[in-house]
Backbone:
């Protein structure tokens, strides 16, 4: 089980949109996110294809184009973001197929299955709005927040 840069960068990029979006009317470019968050532009492009397919973001083409959030901040759980970018956080070696050892369950299968369930339960309860609420208000004083 490992949370890779896919999940971490996707959450960071979406939080950036939430912070810098102007009332959900001004799309944010991936270039701007890339510059602010020091994430490769090509990597962001790959992530946002998946985020758009999952309806987590909406895209706008042409001059003034970019991305906005597809839903209200309070309706985007972190688990959905992680799943959208194909992040696999299953702690079980068999990924739930119960073929850990000799085509059967290993001795610790249920332990890792429980951990995986708890992890997703935790991430299901945290939304982008929650992260924004916990952000250091002093650091964000001059930033316009996106409200959908």
Residues:
């Amino acid at each position: 089980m490992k949370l890779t840069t896919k999940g971490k960068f996707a959450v960071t990029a979406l939080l950036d949109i939430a912070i810098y979006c102007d009332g959900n009317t001004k799309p944010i470019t991936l270039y701007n996110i890339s510059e602010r968050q020091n994430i490769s532009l090509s990597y962001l492009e790959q992530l946002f294809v998946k985020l758009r397919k999952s309806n987590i973001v909406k895209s706008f083409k042409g001059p003034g184009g970019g991305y906005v959030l597809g839903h209200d901040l309070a309706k985007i759980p972190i688990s959905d973001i992680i799943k959208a970018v194909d992040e696999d956080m299953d702690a079980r070696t068999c990924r739930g197929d119960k073929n850990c050892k000799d085509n059967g369950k290993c001795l610790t299968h249920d332990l890792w299955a429980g951990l995986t369930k708890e992890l997703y339960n935790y991430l299901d309860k945290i939304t982008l709005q929650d992260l924004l609420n916990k952000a250091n208000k002093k650091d964000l004083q001059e930033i316009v927040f996106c409200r959908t």
